[in-house]
Amino acid sequence: ESIKTVLTSPENRILIKRMLIKCADISNPCRPIEQCIEWAGRISEEYFAQTDEEKRQGLPVVMPVFDRNTCSIPKSQISFIDYFITDMFDAWDAFADLPNLMLHLDNNFKYWKGLDERKLRSLRPPPE
């Protein structure tokens, strides 16, 4: 009933659509772990390439944390989840009840934390 009330206002519908688009745009930490790892790698590589190119051209480095020689992908994912994802998806979950997404988010956060606690900087632990 409260959702129906919220949806009666055109302004609220626009806000909800904007929120949905933003959540979809940054939702990688809410995907199943294998997809999350794959896309974290792709995004990191994109940022590494940007940093490499900025250095090559002698430009200011916009994201110095994405130096491929020093970056910790687990730390970058943990920070991204802490600063952008958790609060946004907690709010979205309160509105739309998204237990699967929240479970993936929790599992992925634990995965990245586990790598970081082992002082690993890569997408995956080394083979056993």
UniProtKB/TrEMBL annotation:
<dbReference type="GO" id="GO:0046872">
    <property type="term" value="F:metal ion binding"/>
</dbReference>
<dbReference type="InterPro" id="IPR036971">
    <property type="entry name" value="PDEase_catalytic_dom_sf"/>
</dbReference>
<dbReference type="GO" id="GO:0004114">
    <property type="term" value="F:3',5'-cyclic-nucleotide phosphodiesterase activity"/>
</dbReference>
<keyword id="KW-0378">Hydrolase</keyword>
<dbReference type="GO" id="GO:0007165">
    <property type="term" value="P:signal transduction"/>
</dbReference>
<dbReference type="InterPro" id="IPR002073">
    <property type="entry name" value="PDEase_catalytic_dom"/>
</dbReference>
<protein>
    <submittedName>
        <fullName>PDE8A phosphodiesterase</fullName>
    </submittedName>
</protein>
<feature type="domain" description="PDEase">
    <location>
        <begin position="1"/>
        <end position="119"/>
    </location>
</feature>
<dbReference type="Pfam" id="PF00233">
    <property type="entry name" value="PDEase_I"/>
</dbReference>
<keyword id="KW-0479">Metal-binding</keyword>
